[in-house]
């Protein structure tokens, strides 16, 4: 008897096997953790996706500290005020970077090359982020949050969703801000990043050689490495 491994050529019958085979076929290790990237990735417009992720990580990290310590800490303590400001400015940078990222990809027609789902998940992530930001503003437990809550309540009532989304309910908005919205956003970001790895970053419109290859960017030995900036 030889010591060679037995290869099972039978198709998978369970959903777990089908998912495993799909991942092995469409998302090999060289795509998940590529060592090289196309030369055009050195352009500044490709930086804002990573900057958006970095700002999101800072939001989650600072928000976790604020959630554990509570309003009496971040309204009074100097360290608390620092983390509160860190959280606030991380949110501002997050939306700035995300808007630039989405606008840049819009003008590059980022849905080309079977990347429609990548574009859609990015846009949905923006919408969810706006909801997360609104719930964050109304749970500050200060005068600003009360004013914002009741002004927003009138607007939501006017469009007919005030019965389900009550921004004057502190408990509801607190849970939405610290759990529901981040959970949805985390799933969208993971799916978005996986799709980027699956189909590759969108090439410039004038990258004719990439489009001729089918639109998908595959990192391999023939891929031109990114030049040092």
Coarse structural class = mainly alpha
Distance between the termini: 56 Å
Percent range for helical residues? 55-70%
| Largest beta-sheet characterization | none
Task: Return the string of H and E elements.
Answer: HHHHHHHHH
Indicate the radius of gyration in whole angstroms. Answer: 22 Å
- Unreliable runs, pLDDT <50, ≥5 residues? 214-229
Shape: globular
How many beta-strand segments? 0
Question: Strand content of the residues, in percent?
Answer: under 5%
Number of helices: 9
Mean pLDDT: 84
Descriptive key words:
about 0% strand
Task: Tell me what you see in this structure.
This protein is an all-alpha fold and 229 residues long. 64% of the residues lie in helices and 0% in strands. It is built from nine helices and no strands. The chain has helices at 15-26, 29-32, 47-69, 71-74, 78-107, 116-137, 143-158, 170-199, 208-212. Helix 3 runs antiparallel to helix 5 (78-107) and helix 5 runs antiparallel to helix 6 (116-137). The termini are far apart. Residues 214-229 have low confidence and may be disordered.
Sum this structure up briefly.
The chain is mostly helical and 229 residues long. The chain has helices spanning 15-26, 29-32, 47-69, 71-74, 78-107, 116-137, 143-158, 170-199, 208-212.
Any chance you could write out the topology, listing elements then pairs?
Elements: H1 15-26, H2 29-32, H3 47-69, H4 71-74, H5 78-107, H6 116-137, H7 143-158, H8 170-199, H9 208-212
